[in-house]
Amino acid sequence: MIQNTDVAVIGAGPAGANAALAAASHGFSVTLIDEQPAAGGQVWRAKSTAILDAPATLETVAGNRLRKEIDDSLVNHIGAARVWQIERGGEGSTLYVLRQGRSEVLHARALIIATGAREFVQPVPGWTTPGVLGLAGATALFKQEMALPGKRTIVSGTGPLVFFVATEIRRLGGEVAAVITPNSRGDWLRCLPAMLSHADLLLRGGRWIADLILAGIPICWRHAVTRVEGETQVAGVEFRKLTADWSPTGPARRIDGDSLCIGNGLIPATEAAQLAGLGLEYSLGLGGWVPCEAADGGTHLTDVFLCGDGTGIRGAAAAELHGRLAGLSAAQHLGADTSAERDRLRAPFDRAARFGMAMTSLSIPRAGLTRLTTEETIVCRCESLSRTDIAAEITSGARSTNAVKSGLRAGMGPCGGKFCQTTVARMIAEAEGRAEADVPPPTPRPPLRPVPVAALAGDFSYSDLPIPKPAPL
Ligand SMILES: Cc1cc2nc3c(=O)[nH]c(=O)nc-3n(C[C@H](O)[C@H](O)[C@H](O)COP(=O)(O)OP(=O)(O)OC[C@H]3O[C@@H](n4cnc5c(N)ncnc54)[C@H](O)[C@@H]3O)c2cc1C
Asked: Which amino acids bring their CB within 6 angstroms of ligand 1?
């Protein structure tokens, strides 16, 4: 089925949903697409039907408010639908959308990309053992299913998410064996001035840490997990102290647990912006590679707009405001006058972004972090490639992420490189003595998400296929 819309928005998180609402408020037809069934994105993920009666959290309340606003608006929200290809040309953009097993086509005069972030895990020996979850991924488990990662969980990683995850595990009745974080108390104190711009969020984070301390949960500051133990299930972890540059130092200690939540911050999901034809630039403070963006979510393509964590990790509060700015910019492009509204949003957006970037700064990787990935550690999970395999490819002359990808298939598996590419790029930069900003991610290729061949082939009967007559001898 082919459809037309004034504005298409990819991603119904705080950024995309607010962009859709802002554009629709000026009378344009807006189609909002997300692979999740309900709007809310990662942070305000909706509950599954099995737990609808569970007590509401702050995230549930914010998500329900947003979902009601969308229901009450003229926005056409299409859930459980994946955009797998973006084509440019003619007037606007053409999106290929996988929905209910079929590929559909949507033409849009203006496109807003709000695809959010994904998490980064620095590979350590044993990180592919069953029972290991991404720190951010674990939040999806809590919000959608109220499920626990295990009975006794070690929670490890950078930034505020490590304390949120530990607090949620305890709220849901699980046991937290320990919190292990590469950040020091001093790292947090340095963020304090920027965090004062959002005192409510600062207070919430402070309460998580205080509750964990009062409950007697060990918090190991400036430490990292260096090995996951267990063959078929996590049995415990080894962890070590870190130097100021996050190199492991001193003897290993160990702690028992049947599960581990581990993460090293978030990375902007840039593939959709790249497919739409936007270039990337490197910004350590925003989480790495980000699409080149102009003011208010605009880009050098006059009908393509960006917002939210996909443009740099600034957090949910900034994503909402950024979304509204991008939606209004799209409306302006289509003929509405939105300058006054945008003028009012810029200062609150800057304030929220300051807070979010202070949180992101806690996850900026330091030089020693890659030493956690020992030679035998699996780096590319899809193709089972170890650090040694990738290092050998680099030594043999593969000097770009594209070259490692074509030589070893690192990044060609089901995850499309979402788990390994950052580590591969850092390995190339280290081996060549280059800056990370000189090693861009691989060329983006469709599909953005896996697509079954049957969805591309569509309906046909084998008997309708023209069969050429045998050629005369
Ligand atoms: C797994 C995960 C969990 C997180 N949990 C928290 C948390 O608990 N608390 C917190 O403060 N922050 C959390 N964050 C950070 C949080 O995502 C952001 O700060 C905030 O949600 C950003 O809003 P956004 O709208 O930019 O992106 P998101 O909320 O990530 O929304 C992006 C949306 O785009 C959709 N999407 C992406 N690509 C496609 C595609 N090709 N087709 C269709 N849909 C697509 C995704 O399904 C998603 O719903 C989490 C991040 C991740 C990656």
From this structure: 10-16, 33-36, 41-43, 82-83, 114-119, 136-137, 139-140, 266, 272, 308-310, 315-316, 319, 448-449
